Amino acid sequence: MTQAHAGMVPFITAEEINEMxxxxxxxxERDYTGKDLVMVCPLKGSVPFFSDLTRQLQxxxxxxxxYLTSPKGEAVRILQDLTVDITNRHxxxxxxxxxxxxxxxxLKTRILASSPAxxxxxxxxxxxxRRELPIKPDYVGRTIDDRFVxxxxxxxxxxxxxxxxxxxxxx
Length: 171
Ligand code: IMP
Ligand code: MG
Description:
The chain is of the alpha/beta class and 171 residues long. The chain has helices at residues 14-32, 47-56, 102-112, and strands at 8-12, 37-43, 62-69, 77-80, 90-98, 118-126, 139-143, 148-150, 166-169.
């Protein structure tokens, strides 16, 4: 694979990601069997994780997508809102990584305003050391320290989302 950034160091392999996704799917199945589940994908970074996790889940499920943006230093706002009715349904937000928690905090507030039956969060990676708002995911693939990562949906200036593995990036 062409390495687009000189500072990229292998961090989590595609095989390890696959194991994490499988493990998360089994946990989620235990909790949502028999429930009306809506899986929410915040664009764009969560797309590979959402695609793999939803196909691993042996459960009936509805999918929806939301596009939030937060230009540096500015407040989070909605570019593309949810399209399905989530009232009285069990909502699971699928994030690829939680950093400060600003995006997720905003999205949770937006979803709770529509009175879901329940609201939980699954994240592939969690960076609790970076947290600015009190957000705690319900399912975590792996907790990592304060480092910037690229690949499997995560980008640096829009580059790297398609990489199968996850890399650590140090400038
Ligand atoms: P937060 O609002 O600070 O929690 O930011 C969450 C979003 O920032 C994630 O959904 C990612 O899109 C992006 N992000 C956070 N950390 C990283 C990283 O290490 N690499 C790439 N994108 C990241
Ligand atoms: Mg994201």
